[in-house]
Design goal:
Elements lengths: L1 H23 L12 H41 L6 H16 L3 H16 L2 H9 L4 H11 L4 H12 L17 H15 L4 H10 L2 E6 L5 E6 L2 H18 L8 H14 L46 E4 L2 H4 L7 E3 L3 E3 L1 H10 L4 E2 L22 H11 L17 E2 L14 E2 L3 H9 L3 E2 L10 E2 L5 E2 L16 H6 L7 H5 L5 H7 L8
Parallel strand pairs: 3-6
Antiparallel strand pairs: 1-2, 3-4, 4-5, 7-8, 9-10, 10-11
Helix pairs in contact: 2-3, 2-4, 2-5, 3-4, 6-8, 10-11
Organism: Pseudarthrobacter oxydans (Arthrobacter oxydans)
Protein name: DUF222 domain-containing protein
InterPro entries: DUF222 (IPR003870), HNH_nuc (IPR003615)
Length: 514
Amino acid sequence: MGREAVETAFADIRAALAVLNAEVDGCGSEPFSAADPLAGLADGSLDILAAAAAVVAGVAGLKARAAMKYADSAHTLAPPGAPVQAQEMAVAAEIGCVLALGPRGASAFLSVSHALTTTLPLTLAALQAGTISWQHARAMADEAATLGPAGAAALEAHFLAPDTPRPAAAATIGEMPAHRFRHKARTWRERHHAESIEKRHTKGAADRRVEYRPDQDGMAWLSAYLPAAQAMAGWNRLNALSRAAQGPHEPRTLTQLRADTFASAILTSGTNTSSSSRGSIDSPNVPPDTSTGAGTGVGAGTDTTPSSSIRAQVLVTVPVLSLMGVTDEPAMLDGYGPIPASMARDLVANGADSFYRVLVDPRDGAPLEIGRSSYRVTKAMRNWLRMRDGQCPFPGCSNSSLDNEADHLLAWQHGGTTGISNLGQPCPKHHKLRHSSGWTPTQATKNEPPGWISPSGRHYKSEHQDWEPPHWPEELTPELERLNGSTAGLADFAYIGLSPAEDGLARFLHDPPA
């Protein structure tokens, strides 16, 4: 029955597609709603869209399995003594021709398919079930590629095992765009990689570079591969400079202003050639260039007068013991993810005026709520929202938290309070969407951003931060247990053993002044 069964199955699929297309066109045998055909068709189209996405994912899983079954069969049928590399090239060429993929695309497809069918069974099962997309599966395979078998199994178990505890209000990985899941998977990988993040960062820093790539219409791309603290601070500085240039008589968009500001910065001959810029939050330290004896701070020689008064803001959460050098667990850089503890210590020591500290709960790693009773949202509370949400909380939006606006979920005039649990921080686009359409946010908590309800009545869960408990040395475990669940003692616990000098660096935001 083999070939005949396959042809029959795909004929049935094509017949089902014809039925579904007729339903989308409103030409089905019965309307979705006899009482309101137009509203019924709109709602039914969303149902078809959701189900189609699940079917597409299942087909992607089928393609991966079929490709690897062909590859295994081709290797078995190859003549004895045939070079392995030649066999792999032949398999990739065949798959590429069947799927109309180039050599690079075919190799990438086979690489992900191999990972799914050999080391990532939960990911393949979720793909075939339609709960994640091919893009999600590819992100999982990419992040698992540098982990050993045990690490890869732990990675997918963390996100896909049914017994892994997770907040009920949190979106699953299939309910968020693949690029957002990739960020979460990368964060987990950085925290749990078998090799120290300090060692991996040292290797990565040695590969820092700038690349140029021509594009169409007289345009080109100029990109830089930099230590995360430099790249994030530079991006935030570009945003600050560009926002400062906006006004009623400025016709350029924020995106255009960023590009013009960047071009001006790298093309302007600066007058400040001293090393005083090294260590600032705008140009955190990187290893010196031993071939010339010169430092590599990005601010050297480019400190132009128009931008000298604007500072980038960088938010870093670092466990207090890591800050003191007792442990080496990663810190979290807002807008990026885990960074080496040494980089965080450098940011604290050399960028104190731009570093915002947060007291984290040693039991689960989540921040402790800051509350106020007045309408005004304080700077400390805005920083808290940045920590809680990471970016605009609208599903799939990655807009940087520095560009977002604090917004009362329940309006002040309707009895809403100015506490973290009643605040969201949507980006300007989704802030406008909330107040000019039927999209409404749901309730938030001190550690969980709001979800959203669409005009069609569908509820979309929010993406939650992946807080993890700090790593405490065994000798401090009795002190942690002594707290007995009391948050009142957490601040005292955080400062155990700190000298007055260390205290100035290690204190986190806790009951800040107005």
